[in-house]
Recover the amino acids of this structure.
């Protein structure tokens, strides 16, 4: 419902000089407003704010200063976030000599400039209060913080004397003792005098001066020093929900960004998360009370409520209060949806064991994706869909769930290609892909939670069992490997009766392949574990599973590739490794080669990474067999490079080949291509350092001393001061030590290989 006379009409009458009509209409507008005419609480707040603001302007124009100030206060109480009004409110308050109200509005506007971007309003207010600053300590406090250079000019740059002089002035102007203590404590804390800060903070009556940000710093300092923490209930009197949001979020930010705090165990971090949750809960209560009809102009911003819900939900989740976290996230999602909160709402729903909550949040997120899905990138879309799939595990039957999985794989099937790419130890993901990898692993974790729920209801379903095993293979963490190994042993017993049936053959193959793969990866990452004979077990398992492989099946191709790489990497049986890798190549060729110069790896269009890996490892096998480097090895490396130009390791191996062949200039060209690789997938610094060391030696050997010096400087600039070759390389380039190159030249093959 619209209010009877808009603020624009009142302002127009004032500009026309008709103050009488403006006052009459403004009074009429206020008199006609009824709360029940505005079911939406935020529309109601705006309507009443506008009406009282219009009356304040009309009264001020008519010279009714005291009444105008009271009307402005009413407007502020209905909606404190109407920043364009606040210069007028301060002007009216100054005219009425109502210094407390002027200070309240001025301070509120300035404190929220950063989040709301209303710098012009703040600047206008500052210009108004400067001439009357001695009338209120709030004015002096605000000006010292907002006017650049004023503090140093007024109190001197030396600390803590400058802070003491400011506190003394504020005391002389009548500032409350609690506020003075807060100023002193904050100054001491900023200067690193924690003992003084603690002593001053401990004297504050927080109920009289509920400053959430200062309270959070005080409580966190107590936690750092192992002291009893103050009771967050003392902040219950703070009406400004955004300040409570700011204080609680300050704790959350430190917990997620501070290196020392991030290193804490879950139990050590618990009091910190409890502190954040307690502060944010007060803000939540303020917003919730406003939505339930309480008059509070500080709590009108729906999006800030949603952001507060998100941070509170995160804190509650860290405290394992998943039911409550889900409720809070859902409240924010319904108030003002945004991506992070939508994700977290559904994620917490999957941790509650509450099928109704999971289904409800899935529906909310489905509507969110309909409205905002176009703004999300591919990885984000995949994350949302994986969470919805996870939520489906609570209430769907395996048949329904697997149909949803089929649709998911149809949409996001390239993630399997990416998983194979990322699980290869020969690949180092570029920084840009770290987000995709994180989303991929999160999607796998989402699926795992859902599968475990399905497994409880259908423990004998071979689809569930084999899907769980594939999930543990794709994750590749130590915990996932351990879970996968335990599950694989159980799965073989469950699936044994099905192994000779047409459908059961596939499940049996997948389970044995998973067992072989997980045993090998366990050995690869944990070979030092005493008493574990994983490598021979893995080889035996691969031999068994590949004896009954299904020609052309993607799982079979994966198994052949993994077994071939195993045989070559561990130099167990090079001819056998070559044979399996050749079968992979035959199964996957032909595939289109990417156009030259591409820097971005697009999993949806790129060739299957298994093919490049097969060529790369077969080349290594040929090299280890000392086969003709000019034919087999070079040919396979060229194919690998053509299929996967985003893999600089190809050029690493080609440089090695040319070194072994004695082709110094070709080796230099390949080594330079490796160290100067400027695509997304840049080599790790250690690999670049090793190849730069080789380049220094190679350039010296061919007599290009300036280039050798340049590459040495580049090696030193990497911060690789501990690189073992640096002393010898420096000596090599010393004119008096030219013979040193002979010994280093002999190391090149080993250095590169």
């Amino acid at each position: 419902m619209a209010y009877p006379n808009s603020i624009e009409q009142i302002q127009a009458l004032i500009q026309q000089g008709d103050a009488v009509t403006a006052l009459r209409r403004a009074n009429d507008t206020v008199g006609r407003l009824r709360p029940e005419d505005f079911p939406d609480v935020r529309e109601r707040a705006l309507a009443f704010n506008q009406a009282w603001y219009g009356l304040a302007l009309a009264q001020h124009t008519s010279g009714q200063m005291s009444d105008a100030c009271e009307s402005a206060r009413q407007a502020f109480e209905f909606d404190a976030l109407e920043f364009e009004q606040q210069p007028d409110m301060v002007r009216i308050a100054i005219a009425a000599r109502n210094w407390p109200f002027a200070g309240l509005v001025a301070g509120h506007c300035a404190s929220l400039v950063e989040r709301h971007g209303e710098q012009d309003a703040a600047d206008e207010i500052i210009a108004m209060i400067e001439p009357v600053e001695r009338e209120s300590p709030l004015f002096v406090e605000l000006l010292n913080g907002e006017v650049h250079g004023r503090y140093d000019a007024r109190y001197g740059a030396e600390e803590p004397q400058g802070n003491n002089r400011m506190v003394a002035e504020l005391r002389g102007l009548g500032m409350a003792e609690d506020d003075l203590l807060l100023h002193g404590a904050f100054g001491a804390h900023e200067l690193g005098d924690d003992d003084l800060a603690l002593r001053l903070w401990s004297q504050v009556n927080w109920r009289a001066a509920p400053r959430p940000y200062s309270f959070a710093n005080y409580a966190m300092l107590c936690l750092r020093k192992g002291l009893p923490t103050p009771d967050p209930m003392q902040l219950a009197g703070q009406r400004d929900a955004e300040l409570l949001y700011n204080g609680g979020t300050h704790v959350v930010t430190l917990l997620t960004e501070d290196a020392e705090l991030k290193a804490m165990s879950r139990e050590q971090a618990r009091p910190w998360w409890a502190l954040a949750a307690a502060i944010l809960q007060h803000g939540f209560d303020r917003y919730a009370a406003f939505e339930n009809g309480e008059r509070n102009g500080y709590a009108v911003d729906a999006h800030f409520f949603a952001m507060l819900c998100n941070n509170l939900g995160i804190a509650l989740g860290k405290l394992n209060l998943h039911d409550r976290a889900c409720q809070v996230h859902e409240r924010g999602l319904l108030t003002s949806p945004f991506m992070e909160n939508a994700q977290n709402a559904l994620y917490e729903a999957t941790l509650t064991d509450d099928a109704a909550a999971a289904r409800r949040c899935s529906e909310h997120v489905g509507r969110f994706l309909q409205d905002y899905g176009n703004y999300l990138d591919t990885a984000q879309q995949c994350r949302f869909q994986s969470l919805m799939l996870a939520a489906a595990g609570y209430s769907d039957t395996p048949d329904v769930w697997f149909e949803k999985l089929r649709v998911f794989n149809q949409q996001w099937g390239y993630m399997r290609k990416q998983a194979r790419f990322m699980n290869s130890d020969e690949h180092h993901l570029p920084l840009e892909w770290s987000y995709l990898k994180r989303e991929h692993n999160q999607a796998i974790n989402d699926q795992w939670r859902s599968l475990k729920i399905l497994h409880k209801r259908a423990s004998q379903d071979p689809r569930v069992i084999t899907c769980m095993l594939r999930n543990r293979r794709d994750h590749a963490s130590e915990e996932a490997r351990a879970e996968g190994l335990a599950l694989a042993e159980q799965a073989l017993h469950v699936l044994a009766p099905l192994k000779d049936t047409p459908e059961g053959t596939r499940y049996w193959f997948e389970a044995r392949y998973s067992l072989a793969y997980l045993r090998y990866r366990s050995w690869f990452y944990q070979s030092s574990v005493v008493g574990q004979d994983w490598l021979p077990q893995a080889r035996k398992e691969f031999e068994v599973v590949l004896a009954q492989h299904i020609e052309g099946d993607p799982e079979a191709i994966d198994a052949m590739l993994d077994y071939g790489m195993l045989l070559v990497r561990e130099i167990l049986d090079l001819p056998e490794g070559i044979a399996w890798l050749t079968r992979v190549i035959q199964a996957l060729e032909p595939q289109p080669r990417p156009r030259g110069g591409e820097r971005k790896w697009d999993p949806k269009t790129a060739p299957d990474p298994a093919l490049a890996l097969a060529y790369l490892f077969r080349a290594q096998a040929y090299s280890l067999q000392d086969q003709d480097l000019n034919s087999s090895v070079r040919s396979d490396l060229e194919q690998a490079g053509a299929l996967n130009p985003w893999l600089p390791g190809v050029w690493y191996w080609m440089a090695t080949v040319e070194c072994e062949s004695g082709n110094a200039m070709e080796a230099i060209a390949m080594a330079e291509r490796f160290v100067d690789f400027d695509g997304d997938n840049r080599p790790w610094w250690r690999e670049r350092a090793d190849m730069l060391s080789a380049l220094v030696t190679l350039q010296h050997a061919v007599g290009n001393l300036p280039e050798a010096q340049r590459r040495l400087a580049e090696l030193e600039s990497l911060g690789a001061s501990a690189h073992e070759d640096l002393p010898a390389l420096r000596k090599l380039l010393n004119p008096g030590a030219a013979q040193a190159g002979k010994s280093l030249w002999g190391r090149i093959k080993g250095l590169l290989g």
Remarks:
- Residues 737-753 have pLDDT under 50 and may be disordered.
- The CA atoms of residues 87 and 124 lie 6 Å apart.
